[in-house]
Write the structure tokens for this entry.
Amino acid sequence: MNGLNRRRVLRGMLNGTAVTVGLPLLNCFLDGNGTALASGRPMPVRFGTWFWGLGMAQSVFVPKKTGADYDLPEEIAALAPIQQHINLLTNSVAHRDTYQNLCHYTGWVINRTGAAPKDGGNIPNETIDVTIANQIGRTTRFKSLTATATGDAKVTNSYENSNTPNPPEWSPMHFYTRLFGPDFPDPNAKNFVKDPQVMVRHSVLSGVMDETKGLMQKVGYEDRQRLDQYFTGLRHLEQQFEQRLKKPEPIAACQPPGSIPGDPAMGKDEELVAERHRLMTDLMVMAIACDQTRVFNVGYSEARSATIRRGYEKPHHTTTHEEPVDQKLGYQPTASWFTRRAMESWVYFVEAFTKIPEGDGTLLDNVFIYATTDHGYARVHSLDGMPMFTAGRAGGRVKTGLHIDMKGSPGTRLGYTALRLMGVDTPSWGTNSNNTSSEVGEILV
Amino acid sequence: MSVRPSVPVPSSRKRLRAALHGSAIGLVAALALSACDPAGDTASQTPASATDLASIRAGEPQEGGAPATLRLVTTDQYVHTLSYVFGPSLDLSVSFPPLQREKGLLANSAATAGVTASQLEQFQRAAAGVAAQVVDPSRRHFIFPCEPKAEDAADAECASAFISKVGRLLYRRPLTEGELQAWIAAAGESADKLKDFYSGIAVALEGMLISPDVLFIAETAEPDPEHPGQERLDSYSLASRLSYFLWNASPDDELLQAAEGGKLQTLEGLAAEVDRMLASPRLEDGMRAFFDDMFAFAEFDSLAKDPEIYPFFTGVTLADAREQTLRTVIDHLITRNQDYRDLYTTRETFISPTLAALYKLPAKPGWTPYEFPEDSQRLGLLTQISFLAGHSHPGRSSPTARGKALREILLCQPVPAPPPNVDFSAVENPDASYPTQRDRVAVHLKNPSCAGCHKITDPMGLALENFDGAGRFRTSENGTLIDTSGSLDGIKFDSPAGLAVALHDNPALPSCLVQRLYSYGLGAPASGDDFELLDYFDARFQAIGYKLPGILRTIVLSEAFSRVEEPKAPQQTAQAD
């Protein structure tokens, strides 16, 4: 590395020389503190969500101590390796207000949209990742990326509105191809050539936009909204094409695999779900490292999780309702087994970010991850005592390693905190009782 | 506004009664039709007679219809359409995000589904893949109506011939002059830049394939000259509605010609096209898509069994189980034009080698017809693996899930969700000895807050307990003989066969099919205002012996099918299903 300084590398790039960025990290691209790009732009802070289904069992999940160095009860014992990277928030509430408690739906919808849904098909507001993607996701190849480890193409917690889910990636192979297949604009490619095919594609898009506008004039208000959304999608496609005509800045940590093994077998067996989750996580983290997106959603299991424990006849969801509480243990053993597996996958997820060097730290320093579930105690569909996590330091603006007792305040406070951290300038978040303008100050630097 | 009951009261019976006693005219007309309607016996292939047409709309209540919609095409519709336009050899392994189920059908949400940026990106990739194949040297000669003067330059004349031909089929109407010229220009500019005529065409085709005019089916209304003050679909929109309903694909050349000439807006012209479509082998595509939707088979894409408890039950088993039911349905309802209700008692089906093991039959290669013997408890769709395993837990049967599916899917009777604060753990009380599912679910019926709904589902589900969670026949569970007695709406039985007969005779069975067909065809849930119209269709269905092609013909030839209504305010229902 000795002979390499910033000026020489940049000169090489400008002259069109093939720059092989055979990096460990090229610190010469960073400012002296390692916290910003050499151009002066700060390192981007990314936002992500993580989801697990069916909450937890309070007696073995909620630590006795709050603040730093809290105890790890048995259901979360697996979190030890990431304890210093995360915050655990317990005892928050999702208010259903005047609507009924829609089992396994109301809870997650409130923490992702800030409002209680009125029925099982209702998504009252765009989800928080969509709001944040509109703020920070417009300059990357993908505005956001969504993946599920369940293998089920319908499982997503990201919605623009009730009728417009962001469909999840459910096949690791398919996700790999979408990210790193032939269309991948490798920032570290030796040569950069403007693809003439992309140039002409780009120009044809304006014709499609004209047709969209034409059609918009012929339809009613609601369909016009749908076409307007379509138009926005075309705009994004246009931006993607434009980006592919510009040489991307090299990114040291961007080292996608040349291929991946095939998809795990279909199925909801916990081992298969965990394997799919590992593959999805690795791909997602690399996509972020390569700055293909700055907003991401990963679901380990779904609300009303259908994950299976081998040899046990009922899936996770049915287990939470039908398994008796073991009087000696004080909880439902198999239901807790499922939660423990979810926590192990959460560990894998967070650790994956620590394995990518960035600046003088890791990728985890520059992300903020918001992890939620559908219930507190799933057995009785409770909407109080709900657990949440955060991970990452959001570019140095967030403290980690804390257990915070939310003391029955709305879980939407954490969503509001996330929005503020990501630069969404809003005086409050949420509707009716879930409305809040109170950040979770304990985690802010 | 009258609201159709959404709780399981015997609404269909009431409707049927009304049909039998009240609307005498409709029934007479229907009976007259059954005597002369060729669709009553075989899929209609002969031109409609004048008598037939005179009676076809007699007695139809002046209600029903749907707003003009903007429907997102599904993966299958896209694939069927492109295979028709460019030939079946195209590799169309595209997969668009699934729709959400609304009021019993995925199709109902196509008219409200939005498209995200990420979805559009997938459409674009699919379009690029298709366009590259279309202009590939191995295919282009079959697809292009002309050859360019030179391959390395634009050729507006040949581009125009290709784009107008293909555009009309993709847009389901002729392109406007403006659209045509814009795409010719796009192809020309791209050809010049890429120095290749075919690459230029590919780029234009890619653009057309992501045009909202192609990915959405936009219906247009026009004033109805026969009913001043009312609106109907214009010819092209009607052609699309017919074609997506009956074939699950966009209109073919002939149907578009009928639309172009105004033929579709005359009853004779419409009937001629409908009869042609009903007689076409493509009806099978359409009805496969419909029953796949109605039976909620899309759920199978994410269904899995416990590999330890049912190690033999794999994704292949599920796919074959789905296919078995669809084959049975198509053979019974279309190929042989039999009574819809008999689907639930027929012993005839098809078996694949994978399924043979579960049915304990000798395996033969491929799909082979099979008839279960008279003394078998296998009869009708309820005793097929798709229903039994599809509505069970991963590792055991579920009388409740099966009963709920029977109610919601086959009888159109939504079952309320369980209350949020119920403790179900008594169901698995380890202190009690509950050898069979009947013992376990009995707990539901003892608890008053559970019993209300479980009475709706469990008594019929329990009659299927002779089949385990994978659909295999059994007579005992944990060493205890299984009791398969049960009831459905007051009819008692003591075996799966008894349940099959009770379902066969339940008046909600055929009326549920009618309701789903009507809703699927119009692309919107049936509204509470369509009460009498559905009664009328029910009576016609009965009069023609519950034959599918016949009721399809009645629905698509009705005035309601092309009547355009103002969008209604969203309905309040007890539960979204």
